[in-house]
Amino acid sequence: MYKKFNTQVKDITQKGQVVVAANAFGNIDVQGDISVYGSFTKTLNENFDRVKWFLNHDTSQLLGVPLQGIETPQYLQITGQLNMAKDISKNIYEDYKLYAEYGKSLEHSIGVDAIKFDIQDG
């Protein structure tokens, strides 16, 4: 039950601000995990200042700064500012623009440490 969410480029100038669906609720991801609405409330309210934006979970490739995170009924929405002084961020921004132009989405992944979870045999 894979659900596709399109990346939205918020500002198509060279400012590099984007809004993305970072995690879909009720979606089975490639690791078989399913997030539910409300699972990010504590982090958004108490620890959002610790959230980082890396390319492919590589902590040596910091892309920018997350500015806001909200849970919609469908997904975790993150607004972020790419660091346009870095070549890697400029390149990713160009990818965002290209994909958005063709109605496609870059994939996004988040790293989490679940506080509560259910394990089901499957």
What does this structure look like?
The structure is a single chain. With 122 residues, the chain is an alpha+beta fold. Helix content is 17%, strand content 29%. The chain has two helices and five strands.
- What is the helix content? 10-25%
Order of helices and strands: EEHEEEH
Side by side, the strands of the main sheet go 1-2-5-4-3
**Gyration radius over CA:** 15 Å
Question: Number of helix segments?
Answer: 2
| Beta strands, count | 5
Could you report the average pLDDT, rounded to the nearest whole number?
A: 83
| Strand-residue proportion | 25-35%
Overall morphology: globular
- What is the CA-CA span between the terminal residues? 15 Å
SSE inventory with pairings:
Layout: E1 8-9, E2 17-24, H1 41-46, E3 53-55, E4 58-71, E5 75-82, H2 87-101
Antiparallel strand pairs: 1-2, 2-5, 3-4, 4-5
